[in-house]
Design the sequence.
């Protein structure tokens, strides 16, 4: 009989999987997937060594849509999409698709805050992986305002953060955090990202593209088939966020060679066939609107009128 804990608030699905392994004293991830399948009557459904989100929702006795909305990065990753934008994020394809660990997170590596570790140990008796800490561009804990600790290998999610506290390190220094923590554009980017993570329904990328085009035009930026002498929004994004931070969030924008590939941003307003990377949309929104609240309000209105 498997011991299955209740997922903690906003606990990342991969971390929850690791917690189930540890509680049951099993170190082989393929073996625990088999045991989970047996316990929920879905034997042989998964061929991966990480349990699917459906399996995890079943063992945690959480309704599938709720589990996806509260314990995965999908609401952020698919926050602006063409994929069934009218239904909840937790679309049918994810139900049966056992995504490998690398695709379940929104950036490489595993991030945690050492002060949150201590706080969670006192509150819940254990430390755990918070999904908010895995958002691209976040290098400090919003609550404790200290640099997040980092483990390069995503297998770290199978351990508790407390277990790897001594072997992990911060990706950035306190000094660097001080230079970026009060940047209003980065603050706006992270606030919009967090809001997407907490939504239960994605925005349609076509509506978002139209909104960006309208706003760019209002502010005098170049738009499709517009005056080519006007500045591109990519230039404003680089000026607002700085190359150093941007190179971690949208590496294709700031190449090592120093050549800037602006299509990854300026193309947002042109594409009608496929959505761009979620971070590109959020960068443009954070640049073109005076506050994250106004960007989110405009997004909601643009979706409502279509
Ligand atoms: Zn913290």
Sequence:
């Amino acid at each position: 009989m498997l011991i299955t804990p209740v997922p903690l608030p906003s606990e990342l699905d991969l971390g929850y999987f690791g917690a189930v392994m540890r509680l049951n004293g099993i170190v082989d991830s393929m073996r625990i997937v088999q045991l989970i399948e047996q316990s929920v009557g879905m034997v042989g459904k998964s061929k991966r060594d990480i349990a699917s989100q459906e399996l995890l929702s079943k063992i945690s006795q959480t309704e599938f849509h709720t589990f996806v909305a509260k314990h995965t990065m999908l609401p952020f990753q698919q926050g602006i999409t063409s994929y069934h934008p009218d239904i909840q994020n937790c679309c049918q394809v994810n139900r049966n698709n056992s995504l490998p660990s690398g695709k379940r997170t929104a950036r490489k590596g595993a991030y945690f805050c050492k002060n949150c570790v201590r706080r969670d140990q006192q509150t819940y008796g254990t430390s755990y992986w918070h999904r908010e800490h895995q958002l691209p561009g976040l290098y400090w804990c919003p609550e404790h305002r200290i640099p997040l600790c980092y483990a390069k290998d995503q297998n770290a999610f199978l351990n508790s953060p407390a277990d790897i506290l001594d072997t992990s390190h911060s990706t950035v220094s306190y000094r660097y955090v001080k230079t970026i923590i009060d940047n209003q554009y980065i603050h706006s980017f992270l606030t919009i990202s967090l809001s997407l993570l907490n939504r239960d329904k994605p925005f349609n990328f076509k509506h978002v593209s139209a909104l960006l085009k309208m706003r760019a035009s209002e502010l005098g930026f170049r738009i499709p088939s517009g005056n080519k002498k006007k500045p591109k929004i990519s230039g404003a994004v680089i000026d607002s966020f700085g190359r150093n931070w941007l190179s971690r969030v949208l590496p294709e924008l700031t190449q090592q060679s120093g050549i800037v590939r602006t299509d990854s941003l300026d193309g947002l307003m042109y594409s009608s066939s496929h959505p761009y990377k979620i971070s590109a949309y959020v960068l443009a929104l954070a640049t073109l609107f005076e506050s994250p609240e106004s960007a989110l309000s405009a997004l909601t209105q643009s979706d409502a009128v279509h």
